[in-house]
Amino acid sequence: MSQVPEDLKYTQNHEWVRLEADGSVTVGITDHAQESIGDLVFVEAPEPGTSVQAQEACAVVESVKAASDVYAPISGEVTEGNEALADSPEAVNSDPYGEGWIMRIQPADAGELDGLMDAAAYQQLVADEG
Amino acid sequence: MPHQTPLYEEHAGAGARIVDFAGWAMPLHYGSQLAEHEAVRTHAGLFDVSHMAITDLGGERARDLLRWLLANDVAKLDERPGQALYSCLLNERGGVIDDLIVYYREPGNYRVVSNAATRDRVRPLLQEESQRLGVTCSARDDLAMIAAQGPRAAELVEQLFGDQAAAALACKPFQAALMGEVFAGRTGYTGEDGFELILPADSAPDLWRRLVAAGAQPCGLGARDSLRLEAGLNLNGHEMDEQTTPLESGLGWTVAWDPADRDFVGRAALEAQRAQGSPWRLVGLVVEGRAPAREGYTVHTDAGDGVITSGGHSPTIGGPIALARVPAAAKDDFRVVIRKREATARPVKPPFVRHGKVRV
Questions:
Q1: What is the rounded distance in angstroms from the CA atom of residue B169 to the CA atom of residue B155?
Q2: What is the Rg, in whole angstroms, of the alpha carbon atoms belonging to chain A?
Q3: Do B292 and B262 reside in the same domain of the chain?
Q4: What is the ipTM of this complex?
Q5: For B157-174, how does the pLDDT look when each residue is reduced to its tens digit (9 = 90+)?
Q6: So what CATH class is A9-107?
Q7: CB–CB of B66/B57 below 8 Å?
Q8: Is the bond preceding B259 in cis, omega lying within 30 degrees of 0?
């Protein structure tokens, strides 16, 4: 069973979102997502300053098998991409909710966070996808 | 429902991620494709290749049949029982229907191992031609096939089969011998030493378990693909298809032009292309940066655009490699288009990796 931490929000596209003390959010892909994608060999995080719309593809994670888009969970401005992943993409596999974070976004409207799933709803989504 | 090989329960029981491949439920990986790849380069890995099509041809005219259907010439196998030959099976236009290995077992007795994805295309061809020439054509779906690959594969075979393994261990690449009921070919698809073991389906799970217990790492289709790419080996449906000739796919060396009076299916079309010169050639590319250059991506060159036929991350090299079909005249200035960006690439002659060593 893949891990779904209680304190995070989730998207239909299998991203996780953590609200930080400074009002920004950290985004990554879920344990379930990294498990289905397989061993990661390349991550392209967005440049700081990039404006993103909710549901817009803004990062790419590539496994040995295929490339997958990572979508912005909410609209806002990218404040940081995880540059360490350029040299150690495997961190997304080994620590998807920690070292494997992909980007930080300053939300345009923090209210958008309320539209995301909680852990229970996400767990249900994963179960439904079988 | 996809077909299951005799080893399906072994894969499912080991927690493999199962995917549909050409109508077969096959393991993609057992946890980590990279670890499986590494095991084959440094130790030994196991692949279930029972989905491939094994067909036995018997009779006085089996040799004639294969000399007519295959672009390579099984006459090269005469007087050499146990010897194997790699060949393309072409259509009349010289396009590649399949690539296969044919083993010469004894006079009037050949074994053909062809791809799973083309089973329904190749089997009827063999059957039709067999009927015409009075050859016995047996679809050996009662058999399973396990590939044991890697620098330690021979050791494992010796450990498990003892004295029975002597003939198989004496085999050079592309030779085969019997170990009891197991037909062992010193062949594979990884660029490493190893064996492809063909045996009765009922016996396959036991041999698989004993090989695993002896230390071989079960490997899925994912590692099979990254290993064959590093080895610079073509995959039908990617480097070649029915619209592509061997000359455009880096397989000119498998076409036996001599003797000139041997006609084979597709010969006339190939002769014409050979006289004109093939407009394309297949090259290996070592791509700069870390982003994988994948199948279908455009390759700019000094002589026009080409396309990647297979590409991805090379675990051994630690970066992207690819096979690409490019204009025959292309010499310089190779650039792969990766999501609107261009990455420069160095053309090389495959293999990229052989016997555990980087060659490019």
A1: 9
A2: 13
A3: no
A4: 0.86
A5: 999 999 999 999 999 999
A6: mainly beta
A7: yes
A8: yes
